[in-house]
Amino acid sequence: GAVVSQHPSWVICKSGTSVKIECRSLDFQATTMFWYRQFPKQSLMLMATSNEGSKATYEQGVEKDKFLINHASLTLSTLTVTSAHPEDSSFYICSARSGRDFYEQYFGPGTRLTVT
Amino acid sequence: GQNIDQPTEMTATEGAIVQINCTYQTSGFNGLFWYQQHAGEAPTFLSYNVLDGLEEKGRFSSFLSRSKGYSYLLLKELQMKDSASYLCAVMDSNYQLIWGAGTKLIIKP
């Protein structure tokens, strides 16, 4: 089956620093990748959609200068949280969609970010 | 606007059957998904319905009525490991997933 990995699985950083999260599709080419954020006891919130080789499309209310997304290849997308603040502490999940199964998204295991 | 409604929490007994309902109002419809999410983990795919009717997959079944904007997930022979949140999501006309808030299912022995 389709496997998506995320790294790191958890990270603690100090306020004001930047953190990069990687999302990789291991056995398929991901034409589209999605980044979600999930606060405790809440549902998934889509942050942005990225297609390989083009700029990400951010959802309303998501600061594109704060959450930098790069989808440089068909198997890798990165999310960089710049100048992190404690309110950015959350569970970040990526998902990927291949060009073949347009309807199904394969989720990574998530990254728990804690900003102190 | 787009809206997905599902109950916040449900409780059921091990070995029993539980039905989790989901109603939706979206701009366009390209299918409805159910995902299972254990605490601290990413969602895992359970089912996809795009046509009306019942889709059965082992202990889990999912039903869709497009005219009513309604779906349910049916879990049979409940096991303790089924304790999780169940997320209903609809793919809209732009092929974007619109997510419900999730239903936390608590299984009691």
Describe it.
- The complex is a heterodimer of chains A (116) and B (109).
- In chain A, strands 2, 4, 5, 6, 9, 10 and 11 form a 7-stranded mixed beta sheet that branches. A 4-stranded antiparallel beta sheet of chain A has the order 1-3-8-7, with no helix packed on it.
- Chain A is built from no helices and 11 strands.
- Chain A is globular.
- Chain A is an all-beta fold.
- In chain B, 0% of the residues lie in helices and 57% in strands.
- Chain B has no helices and 11 strands.
- Chain B has strands at 3-5, 9-13, 18-25, 32-37, 44-49, 53-57, 60-65, 70-75, 84-91, 97-99, 103-108.
- In chain B, the strands form 2 sheets. In chain B, strands 2, 4, 5, 9, 10 and 11 form a 6-stranded mixed beta sheet that branches.
- In chain B, β6 (53-57) and β7 form a beta hairpin.
- The mean pLDDT of chain B is 94.
- Shape label of chain B: globular
The fraction of residues assigned to DSSP E strands of chain A is over 45%
The class by helix and strand makeup of chain B works out as: mainly beta
Q: Which regions of chain B have little confidence, pLDDT < 50, spanning 5+ residues?
A: none
Approximately what portion of the residues of chain B adopt beta-strand conformation?
over 45%
What is the residue-mean pLDDT of chain B, rounded to a whole number?
94
Distance between the termini of chain A: 37 Å
Low-confidence stretches of chain A: none
- Overall shape of chain A: globular
Helix content of chain A: under 10%
- Following the backbone from N to C, one meets helices and strands of chain B in this order, namely EEEEEEEEEEE
The rounded Rg of chain B comes to 13 Å
- Total beta-strand segments of chain A: 11
Find the structural class of chain A using helix and strand composition. mainly beta
Give the termini distance of chain B in whole angstroms: 40 Å
Largest inter-chain contact set: A-B, 19 and 19 residues
Query: How many beta-strand segments of chain B?
Result: 11
Number of helices of chain B: 0
